Amino acid sequence: MMTSLVETTRIDPIGLDGGIVISATGAEVLGDPTITQFCSSLQKVYQLANASMWAIGDLLLYGEGRGDWGEAYTQAVELTQKSYWSLTQAVRVSKAYPQDNRKFVGLLSWSHHQEALRVKDPSDREVLLQRAVDEGLSRDDLREWNKALPPAEDAPPTDLTTPTVTCPECQHVFTV
């Protein structure tokens, strides 16, 4: 039964800089870290949190490719305690950015990448992510920018033209 697996699976504490330890229940400061050690530890925790959504998406994407494993999402919802929607978003982002094409992962959050998916054309999406890096745009900044885009649809446009939107600041034309 999956519930017993969730209840018995624990992660071992991970030691960071300056006596800071993280575990499944959070962080504990056991030493007397310097500000540099504190900041380093904070950055590592952020990187782990960011990597976890990529990892969940990658693992579920792998599971989808296994025809012999059955319904992976039901088990994943139970194991991760994440919603079905969150899990499908993780897979959607991993599919859109294959591991060999995750150029901005060290510079932008997983959520930045998720927001950028409103831009359909991958090269336009890359321009948008580069702009987020260059201008220090937050995920919320991208979300606000995305409000100008037409609603995301999986269906192709009904007319013969490709929908576009022009950035009011840099005048780049994005395919949506």
Can you characterise this structure?
The protein has 176 residues and is mainly α. 51% of the residues lie in helices and 9% in strands. The strands form two sheets. Strands 1-2-3 form a three-stranded antiparallel sheet, covered by helices on one side. The protein has a two-stranded antiparallel ribbon with strand order 4-5. The chain is flat and about 55 Å long. The model is unreliable at 1-6 and 153-161 (pLDDT under 50).
Q: Determine the mean pLDDT.
A: 82
Question: What is the 3D shape?
Answer: flat
Helical content stands at 40-55%
Quick one: biggest sheet? 3 strands, antiparallel
Low-confidence runs of at least 5 consecutive residues: 1-6, 153-161
Report how far the terminal alpha carbons are from each other. Answer: 44 Å
With helices defined by DSSP (H or I, 4 residues minimum), what is the helix count?
7
Strand content: 5-15%
Rg over CA atoms, rounded to whole Å, is 20 Å
Instruction: Write the H/E string, N to C.
Output: HEEEHHHHHHEE
Which structural category fits the helices and strands? Answer: mainly alpha
The total beta strand count reads 5
Largest sheet: spatial strand order? 1-2-3
